[in-house]
Amino acid sequence: MASTDTKLQDAEKMMVKADKMTRLSLTRWKADWRNATSLYEKAALAFRHAKAPEKAKEAFEKAARGQEMLSSPWDAAKHMEAAAALAKEVGNWGEVSDFYRRASECYTESGRSQPASDALAKGARALEEAVPQDAIQMYADACAILEDDGNQQMAFDLYRSAMSLYIKLER
After folding, report:
1. C-alpha distances in angstroms, 121 versus 2, 8, 51, 155?
2. Is 52 helix (H, G, I), strand (E, B) or coil?
3. Cβ neighbours of residue 1 closer than 8 Å, sequence gap 6 or more
4. Whole-angstrom Cα distance, residue 100 to residue 124?
5. What is the pLDDT of residues 8-34, one digit of tens each?
6. What is the maximal distance between C-alpha atoms in the chain?
7. How far apart are the C-alpha atoms of 56 and 52, rounded to whole Å?
8. What is the reported pTM?
9. With 0-12 CB in 10 A as exposed, 13-18 as middle and 19+ as buried, what is 24?
10. Measured at the alpha carbon of residue 44, what is the angle toward residues 141 and 139, in degrees to the nearest 5?
């Protein structure tokens, strides 16, 4: 129990230190996103290992923001997916949808349509039971991304998943 408490305290200290690095002051005229993002990532992992999913989710979200500030949308998307998985664990369905959508946008920004579609599909699968209407919309958006990129063949499984969810809702 003591090691969990020390992990939580260490992670909290990392978050505070990272937050300070991103704030501007009289002596700091430019935010240090590189070091802050590294601290947010370490804090997120520490919170996850200490079984504090809500705090880990917040840390991953801040790490994603840091990666966006560093012009690294691929890494930002990975952090958003991690935050979405933790939001699912907590049962916060609105955030699950938001995080997976933001991850998809980041993948699209980095020029990767397949991972963007996959992120939306993961979000849809996570929402199927709790919020089926949002899941159907996410499946449709994932299919649209693949179709826009000319990968109609890869959209087949997504269409099938969306249709099975439609049929399930009709019962």
Report:
1. 40, 33, 26, 10
2. coil
3. none
4. 9
5. 899 999 999 999 999 887 777 888 899
6. 63
7. 6
8. 0.89
9. exposed
10. 10
